[in-house]
Amino acid sequence: MKVLANDGISKSGILALEKGGFEVITTKVAQEQVANFVNENNVSVVLVRSATKVRKDIIDACPGLKIIGRGGVGMDNIDVDYAKSKGIHVINTPASSSESVAELVFAHLFSGVRFLHDSNRNMPLEGDTNFDGLKKAYANGIELRGKTLGIVGIGRIGQATAKMALGLGMKVIAADSFIPQVDVKVEFFDGQSITTTIVSQSLESLFKEADFITLHVPAQDGYIISEKELAIMKDGVGIVNCARGGVIDEVALVKALDSGKVLFAGLDVFENEPTPEMAILMNHKISLTPHIGAATGEAQDRIGTELASQIISLLS
Fold first, then answer.
1. What CATH number labels 97-288?
2. Model confidence over 244-263: pLDDT tens digits?
3. Of 212 and 74, which is predicted with more confidence?
4. CATH class for domain 2-94+297-315?
5. Is 18 an annotated catalytic residue?
6. How far is the C-alpha of 104 from the C-alpha of 241, rounded, in Å?
7. Which of 250, 291, 302, 306 is catalytic?
8. Which candidate in 23, 103, 273, 277 is catalytic?
9. Is 244 labeled as catalytic in the residue annotation?
């Protein structure tokens, strides 16, 4: 059987699939040509990340399709229920990228509290002529230790983020309408560990209490953070979104950054991917990455081998 990994797959995933008797195609097929390619090449499995969409039109056009796989957590680029109604298996890898995304959250947090995103723009331009001026501009850093991190969505990635925050000595609070409470185990290099219970609270109370806020939710019909929510947050709050674009009102965010209400934002995802608004890209208070939350070698290895394992189990 043939597997089309349209958004790529790790070498370890390819080797595992080939060992299981599958032919893996890594040719990048344009969105509008996916259905034709699948049919012409008798593809049984389509694997995607976040770029390729597998909607009703592709599902209807490809009767030979047996599995649709998403390398990652959210499956908002796949018509999951419709695919299942047609007898197609839909799989994902919810645990494989948690650590990588959580580390990126803290990359943005550290960048924000020490102005690294702006300093790295200006040091090459002015470092030799305005060193003392830049030193003064970036002198009011903030420690994360002792501060309160509000996690919106305390699933696998939220929990991984909570563990890192606890390790830094932060207070962690969470809001999740599906998980009332969770035990978070922080494990150390020598085998020791500590476990703490995080009880979910209301979004409103989280927004009022948190010094920093990180979002870990699937795509939504509306905004989780808009002008109303920003207004009740602490002055000087930091906001990170490594989840999905469209959960923050970017116009309201820029306004809050410009007014000083929000100290900084860290964005890995955007309302208009893959063409984020210029007002976002040019704002010196935003730390920016191009949707790379799961883009580490370790995460991609785990994703590839986990997808391969599920495919082999389903089709062998």
1. 3.40.50.720
2. 999 999 999 999 999 999 99
3. 212
4. alpha beta
5. no
6. 10
7. 291
8. 273
9. yes
